[in-house]
Write a structure and sequence with these properties.
Blueprint: E1 7-8, E2 11-12, H1 13-32, H2 38-53, E3 69-72, H3 78-88, H4 95-99, H5 129-148, E4 160-165, H6 166-170, H7 172-184, E5 189-195, E6 198-199, E7 202-203, H8 212-219, E8 222-226, H9 233-245, E9 251-256, H10 279-288, H11 300-306, H12 308-330, H13 332-343, E10 364-365, H14 366-377, E11 384-388, H15 392-396, E12 414-416, H16 421-433, E13 439-445, H17 449-461, E14 467-471, H18 489-494, E15 500-502, H19 507-519, E16 525-528, E17 533-534, E18 550-553, E19 561-565, H20 569-582, E20 587-591, H21 595-600, H22 603-609, E21 617-620, H23 629-632, E22 637-639, H24 650-656, H25 661-670
Parallel strand pairs: 3-4, 4-5, 5-9, 8-9, 11-12, 11-13, 13-14, 14-16, 15-16, 19-20, 19-21, 21-22
Antiparallel strand pairs: 1-2, 6-7, 10-17, 18-20
Helix pairs in contact: 1-2, 1-3, 1-11, 2-3, 2-9, 5-7, 5-16, 7-16, 12-13, 14-19, 16-17, 20-25
Amino acid sequence: MVAAAPTLGTQSVDTLCVNSIRFLAIDAINKSNSGHPGLPMGAAPMAYALWDKALKHNPKNPKWFNRDRFVLSAGHGCMLLYALLHLTGYDSVSIEDIKQFRQWGSRTPGHPETFETPGVEVTTGPLGQGIANAVGLALAEAHLAAKFNKPDVTLVDHYTYVIMGDGCHQEGVSGEAASLAGHWGLGKLIALYDDNHITIDGNTDVSFTEDVLKRYEAYGWHVQHVPDGNTNVEAISRAIEAAKAVTDKPSLIKVTTTIGYGSPNKADTAGVHGAALGAEEAALTRQALDWAYGEFEVPQEAYDHWRQALSRGAAAEAEWNTSLADYRAKYPAEAAEFERRLRGELPANWDANLPSFTAEDKGLATRQHSYNALNAIGPNLPELIGGSADLTHSNLTDIKGEKGFQKGAEANRYLHFGVREHAMASILNGLAYHSSGLVPYGGTFLVFAGYAIGAIRLSALSELGVIYVFTHDSIGLGEDGPTHQPVETLANLRAIPNLLVIRPGDGNETSGAYQVAVTNRKRPTVLALSRQAMANQANSSAAAVAKGGYILEDSTGTPDLILIASGTELELATKAAAVLRAEGKAVRVVSMPCVELFEEQDAAYRESVLPSAVRKRLVIEASSSFGWHKYTGFEGDTVSIDRFGASAPGPVCLEKFGFTVDNVVAKAKALG
């Protein structure tokens, strides 16, 4: 039973607290003359009900492990979140930070960013991503609870809460992720749906008339509806408590609200979605809501109530610390493992079993080398968790002996994402956001990075160490044809800041790629892997992958020509170099598995590998030439593919598009 709120003058403390959110948002957005006031004004009651009466968190320790996670999936309404952080006492958002909303260097940027503002759990903005990330957060909680909790001591026990809007439901990624959440039975995932019937184009009637609750019920969610979300805090609180009582299903609570609630002239219109109210309308809204306070002024009674979160949070964390101490005493080995993960430390010798190869070892596809590497590190890296988007036996992403995560089997760490590439990438981000030391990975064909690229971009922006295992990386995959041949994808991915794109050329380089990917916990890695086999090179090096590019074969003295290659084309480069050397050419072969890492090396190293005096350079990669010209210059060339591929056996495709020794030799000779 939710107790009635005490009254202060003519307004209850609940009303003061709710309107504090509304007017901080109105004033900050007016001051910056930029932002989205409508959502904070309409969703303030549900935010108050959640943060004041349900959310377990400690404002003085935003990274406390067992806190509930809150995701503002409708990230454009970020002043709602900044107001909540400020009002509940987070040091990261002062009133001055509120006044600097959307300004250069501010901790209150235009959409929530984890790397800018402590207390922000997820970088949201692109709609649908937040709810999909929340599925990953809830997945992490369920997995870790199953792994570490004991009958007499509970270490992992927290909820993931979401506020989402109509736009989140319309983006396809949310449907993919919600379907998985229902299948997995993630009972500690609770989403509040701000049902205000408005998007940028106007009333949702123009494009969105489905019954969202019936859709989510079909996904396997528990659903409820609160018809009066503008003022009925008690009803919202009761719905949250009812959702918490359903432990075997995620929950969606539709809360019907009025966008821009309180604004006499702009409420319930698209005009209040993404534009400041302006001084005149703000004054009218103050009158309408009986708000007798100036700009950025919060009544002390509201502050006093909101700041009770400080004592509640400190008590909750202290109670959990007592449980942790009890756990250490009773289960020292498990406690040591749990705390190692929380510190983000990798196990000692986690990579000790990674295979190495000589030129005499059988050549394999790098997807097979990747499988061998995963199975080498899997037993030594228990925090490794991931799977594939319904391509397990093509991506080769399974680890022997590991069973699938399912409802009732949450301790298992292999994830069957189904045919859901976009949701897979977003859920992997959620696992990484959880701050529990998990190392998430996920597989699909490289061409389907196009489906997932929005989430991949957010991995890079948010400094999340997700590992993307993308196979079938060139026209060499063959008969599936141009729809599945990712000729442009590597260039697209290489353009994303803070993303490592590694295309290994043999077994040693694949082992090195995993060493780089696992140790880089602050940036994601794409492993671009082949379907077709290639020889292991005599001089390839796992360690050299960390430098991005290195000399694989060299001539005596200064080379006349440098061949630069990645992936399967590395073998082609060495074969062409042998022909050219036999004809008297001084040829250097440079392996370039990762352009980004090579660019991070100092100028002296880069010059030692690619001397500026040697201008005859030929890049060989079964992909677009885009981006390679910085290495070829005006006097070099590429053996590449700048058109869509074709359906034919892989070797035929490679031959027809010029990936032959004869063509590489001819192009090299044409350089003079």
